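Allow me, if you will, to draw on your knowledge of protein folds for a short while. I have a record of one protein: its chain in single-letter code and its fold written as discrete structure tokens. Kindly check, if you would, that the fold set down in the tokens agrees with what the sequence suggests. Thank you for your consideration; the sequence and its tokens are set out here:
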Amino acid sequence: MLPLLEENPMMSRSKFISSLFISASLTACGSGSEAQFSGDTGDVVTKKQLVDSFVGGVTDGYRPVDISFVVDTSGSMYEEMEKLEANMESFVNAFVPLSSKLDFQVFFIGTNFDFPASVSSNPKFSHVKQNVQSFDGLKRSVDFLSHKYDSTLQPRKEAIQHLIFITDDDSLDMTSDSFKDDAKSLGYSQIHVNGFVGLTKGENSESCIIENVGSVYQDLSKDSEHSGLIQDLCTDDWNAMLDALAKSILSEVALSSFRLSKQAVDKDGFRVLVDGKLVPDYGYTYHASSNSIVFKDGYEPKSGSSIKIYYFAGR
């Protein structure tokens, strides 16, 4: 995190007086006090001065995200498909409680699935009944992102895309470079590659035999533009794998965002401190639509830090 600026004592007389006025108001009145300010017209404007306190690491905002499982449904994947069906409810439930803050969609690209009603009836969930072979997951994902498949929902250009490839094979009909080129041409803000793929070729256990190591998926997940989480398809505990995936996605789409308790009325009247140090006004932005302060990259408060936001609300 970039260092926060201390308040500069070398300031103009008007700013100095303004600072004194604000400080005096805070000292005398505290949260919820009423202060008199002169507006641009010279009129006296009465505003209510507030301070909201937060703890770093607890977010109140997320970027929109589309989560798309691209599943190899060839015969060798039968047991893995069953594990996925049995644990998908817990994965979706990791996102449902955040629905008021997080705009998400979950897609399932593959055939012959039977999901619990709690999953299939969720309006945020869409089953795209398109056959996926062991070798063509990347190609199918590009077609899906190109809106070539019928679906009750569609992937959104403004949302971060998280693709999860589940297969015991490697991508044989599309290279990582070809995928990168196609992904760039699609115009999405971000496309991340995750996967439950083979890490060791051959018989890993009686129930898990890997046709080919998922090298292409691993390479893409390590690329800075498509970074994601790769896990071993032969892991027994799929609930733990899906939980790790959910946490990884939520961490990636979380904003360092803090919603104010009252509607702010002066977009330039903020004073933000982290652990007692003033954050420069270019280190954060105010989102009027959500009435939130969002810290910019490099200025995100560390977990556990003390955040105080001074602002003005209507009476």
